[in-house]
């Protein structure tokens, strides 16, 4: 079973300028699928174009990243509904709440997050959630939708095992990326040691999140092998088991049929 990188910003530099190379290296590393999250309208369109260009390997998500939300964003979001209605997208995001952005407008972020979650539910697509701090608000939004909510990925989730378990009951899996490969990430590594493999998915957040061996800004999907190997080490299981179970979980989340 090959790997599924559930969070690769292929629309962003430097990945976008060497797409053919990036995708060839990803395939050589054992990746069969990549989901491309978006941060705004332009990258949503680019992600869709990529999914059409590489239909066997790339899945597109449409969304407005919380880092790009300002007061009034919610009223200017009709493009998102239009994009989703047009088809071709496999997920909604990334969206969520980021309290660590200087001068973050959390009320505006929450409004936009609610809109994304509602659209994902309507479209029957998973939600790609970005959350730093503001966990209480994220719980409030997702728990208000209950089990009928969209489900999705808690991308690069830094919260505790208990928080992840609470969201797992609402259909959210924990996205595990480069952070776990750093030996000094003691709390995160402890959380991942105790998280069932079926409750997590692999991701790189390439090119952004550094691994122990690759600096931020230079990460590619192929670096996912470092994430896979770290999880295998932490849990004391073969790498093939990490691949098989996380890929199966990710395929189910993205509503793909079992090969
Ligand atoms: Zn991202």
Can you tag this structure with a few keywords?
binds zinc ion, 8 strands, alpha/beta, eight-stranded parallel β-sheet, 15% strand, TIM Barrel, single chain
* CATH top level class name: Alpha Beta
Largest sheet: 8 strands, parallel
**Average pLDDT level:** 96
Look at the helices and sheets and give the structural class: alpha/beta
Tell me the series of helices and strands, N- to C-terminal. EHEHEHEHEHEHEHEHH
Q: Which bin fits the share of residues in helices?
A: 40-55%
Give your account of this protein's structure:
- With 259 residues, the protein is of the alpha/beta class.
- The chain has one domain: Alpha-Beta Barrel (TIM Barrel), CATH 3.20.20.
- The chain is built from nine helices and eight strands.
- It has an eight-stranded parallel sheet with strand order 1-2-3-4-5-6-7-8.
- Helix 4 (106-123) runs parallel beside helix 5 and helix 8 crosses helix 9 (239-253).
- The protein is globular, with a radius of gyration of 17 Å.
- The mean pLDDT is 96.
- The structure holds zinc ion.
- Zinc ion binds next to loops.
């Amino acid at each position: 079973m090959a790997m599924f990188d559930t969070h690769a910003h292929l629309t962003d530099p430097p990945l976008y300028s060497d797409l053919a190379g990036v995708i060839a290296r990803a395939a050589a590393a054992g990746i069969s699928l990549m989901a491309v999250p978006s941060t705004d309208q332009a990258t949503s369109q680019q992600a869709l174009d990529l999914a059409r260009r590489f239909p066997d390997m790339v899945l597109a998500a449409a969304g407005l990243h919380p880092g790009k939300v300002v007061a009034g964003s919610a009223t200017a979001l009709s493009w998102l509904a239009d994009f989703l209605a047009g088809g071709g997208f496999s997920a909604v995001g990334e969206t969520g709440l980021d309290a660590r952005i200087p001068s973050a407008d959390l009320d505006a972020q929450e409004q936009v997050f609610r809109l994304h979650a509602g659209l994902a539910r309507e479209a029957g697509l998973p939600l790609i959630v970005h959350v730093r701090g503001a966990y209480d608000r994220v719980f409030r939004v997702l728990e208000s939708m209950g089990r009928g909510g969209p489900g999705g990925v808690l991308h690069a989730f830094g919260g505790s095992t208990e928080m992840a378990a609470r969201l797992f009951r609402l259909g959210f899996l924990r996205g595990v990326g480069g952070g776990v490969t750093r030996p000094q990430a003691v709390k995160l590594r402890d959380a991942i040691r105790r998280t069932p493999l079926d409750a997590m998915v692999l991701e790189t957040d390439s090119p952004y999140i550094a691994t122990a061996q690759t600096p931020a800004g230079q990460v590619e999907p192929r670096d996912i092998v470092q994430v896979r190997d770290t999880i295998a080490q932490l849990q004391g299981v073969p790498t093939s088991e990490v691949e098989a179970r996380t890929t199966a979980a990710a395929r189910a989340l993205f509503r793909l049929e079992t090969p």
